[in-house]
Amino acid sequence: MWRDLAPIGRNTTTNGYRRYAWTAADTDCRAWFQAQTEARGLTYELDRNGNQWAWLGDPTAGDAVVTGSHLDSVPDGGAFDGPLGVVSSFAALDELRARGAHPTKPLAIVNFGDEEGARFGLACVGSRLTAGQLDKDRAHALRDADGVTLPQAMERAGYDPEAIGPDPERLARIGAFVELHIEQGRALDDTTDGKDTPVGVASAIWPHGRWRFDFHGEANHAGTTRLEDRRDPMLTYANTVLAARKKARTAGALATFGKVGVEPNGVNAIAGLVRGWLDSRAPDEETLAAVVGEIERAAVERGQRDGVDVRVTRESFTPVVEFAHDLRDQLSGLLGGVPVLPTGAGHDAGILSASVPTAMLFVRNPTGVSHSPAETAGEDDCLAGVAALAQVLEGLACH
Ligand SMILES: [Zn+2]
């Protein structure tokens, strides 16, 4: 399975993956998922929001145990973020069948569409739509960098954009959702008590959000405009990036400007508009609100000195997610007391947790690097992840 997926959407220059929603690479990933489903004699379903499902047992029976993740990627992402969860799900199911396990509940594997939000700027679109956390109008207004709207992209890929929206009936079938994912930090690798810990269980997802900062100044000639006559939004932006780092460090939070747009974007032109996107995360919502508030205040203050008007728009926000404690403790018990750790990264499991009991398993990532081709996991650890997932599925679905 890993070899099949390896070449899809890989950029041969960077070795990173570019599997964006509703592109040719995405279509190839989806075809792979469907082929895996059919090769195992599972029931294939494509839901209204573009999520794919592979069912063992009656999809409508209720109290299903569902596992899975996503196959799309960030720009030049690694091979493991997402696909490890989907591949491990199929492998865990194979393991259960090889053992002759008899599930008493329906089991399903899901591939959630557009988890990373790389193309349209909003993460977890497939699960958000299904869970009713993103309405149709807002989804229809999403645009990619080339101005292609989500409905246009869906239509070009052969999907019906009019059908998207909440799907409570589908969620009501699920008794528990478990997502296996590569760890996006080094907590498992850092365990210093001498224990070998290839797998951990998630406790919570930090609250996080994305904010767009628009710095409006005045475009002008870089050679003829005196420094004192300039209204240069790049200065305000640069200062805000530094302030964000400082505020986050002081509060024990995270703040990142990782995307920026400049107009007119000329070497010999003072910028007229700088647009910077802030991603911020913190252990609790109060801290997050305080950090973002302070960054905004720092931007506005600096803007006054630079003659730059600052406007801030919150583009997305995901509250803190505490995974279902019963399910988390059950998993930890089934796996013999593995580490329990929080994460700063958002996941479909986090979106679903508002509607169904969800849990996550993390597989050790020795580099701790994520959203980059340097992300990695050892083969033994991946197999330990499959074994853990099989154990969890058996514990949840076969008794
Ligand atoms: Zn992921």
Automatic annotation (TrEMBL):
InterPro entries: Amidase_Cbmase (IPR010158), Bact_exopeptidase_dim_dom (IPR036264), Peptidase_M20 (IPR002933). NCBIfam families: hydantase (TIGR01879), PRK09290.1-4 (NF006770). Zn(2+) 2 binds at residues 81, 116, 371. The lineage of its organism: Bacteria, Bacillati, Actinomycetota, Actinomycetes, Kitasatosporales. It comes from the Bacteria. Its cofactor is Zn(2+). This is N-carbamoyl-L-amino acid hydrolase. Allantoate binds at residues 210, 268, 281. It holds the Pfam family Peptidase_M20. PANTHER family: ALLANTOATE AMIDOHYDROLASE, ALLANTOATE DEIMINASE-RELATED. Belongs to the peptidase M20 family. GO terms for molecular function: hydrolase activity, acting on carbon-nitrogen (but not peptide) bonds, in linear amidines; metal ion binding.
